[in-house]
Amino acid sequence: MAGLTADQVASFQENGYLVLPDYLSPTEIESLLAETNTLLDNFSLESHPLTQFTTGDDDKADHVGDDYFLDSGDKVRFFFEPDAISSEPDPLTGRPALLKPKNLAVNKIGHSLHTLSPPFKAVSLNDRNAAVAKSLGFQDPRVLQSMVILKQPSIGGAVPSHRDSEFLYTNPPSAVGWWYALQDARPGNATLGMWKGSHKGKKGGHIQRRFVRKADGKGTEFVENTGPSLPKGMDEEKVEEPMDDELEILDITAGSLVLIHGNVLHKSEKNTSPRSRYAYTFHVIEGADGWEYDKRNWLQPSEGGFSRLSQ
């Protein structure tokens, strides 16, 4: 496997992201969509805690943090769109009621599809991705936090601007996101918005906050980052300048792979269109000596550690 070209690596390093069209074949896309629909059809609501996923990006918002979420790193679990759940409990059950059929109410399935679902494992833990990771400089790439993001028609919630290494912090930062479009993701359809070059220290790309488990183990919170804020090789960029307004709204066709630098600022808007926008994503971190996965991160490895991605 050849990995990325020199021009592609240079583009990723300059912009903080790289779009690779037609990375997945039509057969692979069909397989992943079929698996997603099977998972949605077959999970039970009977004992489900109806955990809602929200990134809650302000001081007043509650951050997701129940055990169903915190223990999902080696499982396949289902998280609901807040706008798909009533604010008042069902008078018969005493539980919140779904306002949509369950397959249209879920906004995320995660977080270990790459180990527990054969179709997702096949497109995740393979030599092609290992070659891409090697092109990006990884020595011992490890895969974690695999999930399908389901931007449901009309209600798919916005994801506010963030940097992925805030959530999956290594010392020093090393995360890169693999984001596959399973359906077209276009302007007006909750596609990705990327700030070009915002991963660089001189553009404000430092990891200044962390999303961690609370000290008492109950819930999550954002805290100030006191460790290294840039990946190795970027440490010389200490002068922070105002970031130019270089937001690019991507137009992505189904089957494309978007590589996302862990320090680049990006977001997605609420899906107000009548079309769903499904995407599969996982992250790669450096597992070699000299990098340490932080024990305060919300997602913690199970016995055996995170999945190795190697040729």
Automatic annotation (TrEMBL):
Keywords: Iron, Metal-binding. It comes from the Eukaryota. SUPFAM superfamilies: Clavaminate synthase-like. Pfam families: PhyH. GO terms for molecular function: metal ion binding. This is Fe2OG dioxygenase domain-containing protein. Belongs to the PhyH family. The keyword Metal-binding applies. PANTHER family: PHYTANOYL-COA DIOXYGENASE DOMAIN CONTAINING 1, PHYTANOYL-COA DIOXYGENASE DOMAIN-CONTAINING PROTEIN 1. InterPro entries: Phytyl_CoA_dOase-like. Transmembrane segments: none annotated. The keyword Iron applies. Its cofactor is Fe cation.
